[in-house]
Amino acid sequence: MEGKRFMNNVLVIGGDKRFLYLSRILEEKDCHVRNFGIDAKKEEYDMESFEDEVKRADVIILPIPYTKDGITVNTPLCDECLYLSKIYTNVKADALIFGGVVGERFLPPENLNFYDYAKRDDFAYLNAVPTAEGAIEAVMKHMPGTVLGSNALVTGFGKCAKILSFTLKSLGANVTVCARRSSDLSFARALGMNGVRISKMKNHLGTADVIFNTVPHIIFGKEELKLIRKECPLADIASLPGGADKVLAQREGVNYLFLPGIPGKYSPSKGAQIILETIENISEEMGKEGKLWNLSEKG
């Protein structure tokens, strides 16, 4: 239906600064947008009004991760408790819910039209770009030298690590990738990086000027931490529990930087665009782009 706008009720609940920008973008597309749990200074609402908005919503957008306890929505910018049960019991049967599910611990009910944008490759690759840039920016403040000519070690070689490693190499770093799979090591070497098995990581810790971890489980124990030079920052961009125990790392004198949610802190506008683009892709694949919104042109 070319030229016709679909005025949907979109409810954006929780999240970091990306979701403030996401709300603004949707408003510019003439969507009727309501926010909860994002801006504590501007919001004045009670649970009854929240339930009413859930009942009216055609589309509900939740953050990444959408919950940290399985009970409430993740609201880092607001102290208000917004209970998932209020969403699950009041949402319309045909409403679409988009949210980021990290891990298998807190899965949403199967009867919902819930779509996890965080597990998609299109989201992961695009989101890796602001993650890599933000991580490097954060680490540069803790490096005595420059990225150019430094020895950068990256653990893991998933989607985010690939973009991070390539970005570091583009900045002139000597990049060593520590991974398990032979195919990943070969890929790293094909890109002009040094690829070593993660079981041999200890042999390279003492010469690293900066270390980035993308492996979401503990791989830096006491023995590994002792090998890291005091001036070498260890930046952890993996999801919880991360690659090292913070207390142990600090006890061993390591400059450990746990950097969760980088896109929301360093590039929230771009992060919002990536989330929206992923939701658009899901909608198009469902054949429901008309049900959501027409973003091809402004009304």
> What structural class is derived from the secondary structure elements?
alpha/beta
Label the overall shape.
Answer: elongated
Total helices: the number is 12
Oligomer: single chain
Q: Into which percent range does the helicity of residues fall?
A: 25-40%
Give the mean pLDDT: 90
Our estimate of the beta-strand percent is 15-25%
Computed CA radius of gyration, to the nearest angstrom: 21 Å
* Strands side by side in the biggest sheet: 8-7-6-9-10-11
Largest beta sheet, briefly?
A: 6 strands, parallel
Encode the helix/strand succession as letters.
EHEHEHEEHEHEHEHEHEHEHHH
| Measured distance between first and last alpha carbons | 12 Å
The tally of strands reads: 11
What is the strand and helix layout of this fold?
Blueprint: E1 9-13, H1 17-28, E2 32-36, H2 47-56, E3 59-61, H3 84-90, E4 96-99, E5 114-116, H4 121-140, E6 151-155, H5 159-170, E7 174-179, H6 182-190, E8 194-197, H7 202-205, E9 210-213, H8 222-227, E10 233-236, H9 246-251, E11 255-258, H10 262-266, H11 268-286, H12 289-292
Parallel strand pairs: 1-2, 1-3, 3-4, 4-5, 6-7, 6-9, 7-8, 9-10, 10-11
